[in-house]
Amino acid sequence: MYNQMISRTEHTKRNIIAAVVVQIVNIVIKFVVRTIFIYTLGKEYLGVGGVFNNILTVLSLAELGLGTVIVYDMYRPISENNETRVTQLYQFYRDVYAGIGIFIAALGSLLIPFLGYLITDVLNVENIRFLYVLHLADSVATYFFAHSRSLLNAYQLNRINSRNTLLMAVLKTVLEIVALIVTKSYVIYMLVQIFVTIYGGYLLDRKAKQLFPFVKNKVEKLDSASKRGIFSNAFSMMNIRISQTLINATDNLLVSAMISTVLVGIYSNYSMITQIILTTAFLIESSMAASVGNLCVSEGKEKKREVFARLQYLYSCLFGVIMISLFGLFNPFIKLWLGTEYLLSEEIVFIIVLNCYLSGMHQPVEAYVNADGVFKHFRFKPTVEVFINFVVSIVGAKLWGIVGVFLGTTFSHVLTTLWFDPYVLYKYSFSNGIRDYFNKYFKSLLLAVIMTLVTSKFVSLVTFEGIIGFIIDIIVCGAAALVFIVVNTDYNNRKWLKDRIKSMLKE
Q1: 8 Å CB contact between 376 and 72
Q2: Model confidence, pTM
């Protein structure tokens, strides 16, 4: 049974540890499987898989952002130990998501005749439509278990989700490697993914019901007023999801349709690494989400601002280090791993790294926006963001190729999300001026960019090849990262950090 006496801090700590452990294992697994995939099937299948995944990401917009909204609605009844209300929300979520899964299956099927417009220069790939159907089935299966995953998150038990993810990742990896080496079949590879998705979802659902058996009780259905409130917030949240999804997913689709599907496969190696980084940061954020939600419903605005300021500082250090290291090590690593034919130019790599930094630095703001439920203020912003991204990406693709596509993501973020989201947060959640936030943000960004460019010059001076050269590159980037952290840390944060380290050592 669930122990409600564990503190907010303890939940956060346990969830973060679990998330980081899982992600470390996932990183190793992804590289192993990706390497075997490339050498058994080739970059054409890599590109096709990337395009299919992005199509399904766009289709996931049918989710409407309900997951975030319902988890937010669960925070208060959980803090009040109102099991009836939690059960009503849980069962409503279950029914809605089953319907969404069926809807996405139908909508996705309608796109089958149009795949030829998105897939180019991959003549060696057979059964493209059937492969797409397998990707669609794998995606749809996740919706029938989403309610249990969200229930565990709402109770600050993200670590159980992390444990399930780890076990299924190991199982999937073993089966995928066997399938690739023995059969060299993309079909078998996808059937493995579908099986593991369903099996992992079943185990998670069973665990949630064991911990919270009351959710199986018969209760009155959620009242109409509550449903209207949920869908109203979901509409606002949907707009946020639309911008995030279309901006993240359309890059590959535009590159495939306007430039080359094979290039999508090459870029996917870079995007896999940035996604690993962003997913790790997101896992840390989501591990804190329920604790932040509890903070928002139980503490005053001053406490919320204080905790947020610490998060902003920690993320500025984290993503400053990532930006410096990633730009310096990206191409040396890809060259060492796959060879020179899989390299992108430094200009492209810099835009990829910059977009990774911007996305990462937004996560503390996103965590508080989701936890405090200020969704309604974002109804129109996503439309503007998507419009800017689409126009700049299309024009940029014609003028500058793949660089122009990625610049669309950069411009859309800078002109909307970078300033609007924290503005809403400070105005409606913190009721405080935002000048200090932007001072810290741009100081850290400028420092990170300068250190990144300087470090890359030093890395370019390294003449050694192979592993020895890469190790020297790591040392150079590591030294630059330490300098960045020192310069980026002011007196107050330095004192706070020392106190936290001392406290952790005592524990």
Answers
A1: no
A2: 0.69
